[in-house]
Design goal:
This is GAL3A protein. This protein is an alpha/beta fold. It has one domain: Class I glutamine amidotransferase (GATase) domain (Rossmann fold), CATH 3.40.50.880. The protein has 8 helices and 11 strands. Strands 5-2-1-6-7-11-10 form a 7-stranded mixed sheet. A hairpin with a 4-residue loop joins strand 10 and strand 11. Helix 1 packs across helix 8. The chain is globular, with a radius of gyration of 16 Å. The mean pLDDT is 97.
């Protein structure tokens, strides 16, 4: 019997929601791993709406759950309804929506607050000793909620211009967590906390390398489950 995995989205689109390629990669690897997946998102208003053609904010108002339903092909539930007891693991793709909608990292950095349902979901899986997978900017959620945990967002220096957001590693360290440097095609497993992370689009890399890195994260999550 396949593992039961909850996937938590933050909208639809890299600049104001979930990164579409990361969400798709996670779903493909979960499917290949024989997992039974259900998708969730918080029923809240997005912090902002970005015109992805121009890269600039608009005056629109959009709902995170409604926008996430685009990625879920309509088959999605309110995050408030997620019960950790019904799943073996949870995975969070990245995208700016994580830092804007699931928490306030985009505005407040390490002083951010985490959405109540995101926080309670993380706490529930952690307390039940069930694995948590996070990619791209999503590892900051674990860093904020679980001081002392180990995560990766890639490298802590902008190696060859491939890691423009390397300062995120320093902010994670300031939260009392350990940042582990990893390449884009790798993931890090914090066995003590059952947290698996990979950098994905925190690295400027070809799409297939990001896809492969997310694959290692998914595989490790399923092993821990």
């Amino acid at each position: 019997m396949g593992k039961r995995v909850a996937l938590v989205l933050a909208g639809c689109g890299v600049f104001d929601g979930s990164e579409i390629h990361e969400a798709s990669a996670a779903l493909v690897h979960l499917s290949r791993g024989g997992a039974e997946v259900k998708i969730f998102a918080p029923n809240i208003e997005q912090r902002d709406v970005v015109n992805h053609l121009k890269g600039s904010p608009t005056e629109e108002k959009r709902n995170v759950l409604v926008e996430s339903a685009r990625l879920a092909r309509g088959n999605i539930q309110d995050l408030a309804e997620l019960k950790a007891s019904e799943f073996d693991a949870v995975i969070f793709p990245g995208g700016f929506g994580v830092a804007k909608n699931l928490c306030s990292w985009a505005v407040d950095g390490k002083n951010c607050t985490v959405n109540e349902h995101v926080n309670s979901t993380l706490q529930a899986f952690h307390s039940a000793k069930k694995p948590i997978g996070l990619c791209c900017i999503s590892p900051v959620l674990a860093a904020k909620v679980f001081p002392g945990c180990e995560v990766t967002v890639g490298q802590d220096k902008n190696v060859d211009g491939r890691f423009p957001d390397a300062e995120t590693a320093s902010a994670i360290a300031e939260l009392g967590c350990k940042h582990i440097c990893k390449n884009v095609n790798e993931s890090h497993v914090d066995n003590a906390n059952k947290i698996v992370t990979t950098c994905a689009f925190m690295c400027k890399a070809p799409l297939h390398e990001i896809f492969d890195g997310i694959g290692t994260m998914v595989q490790e999550v399923l092993k821990l489950a």
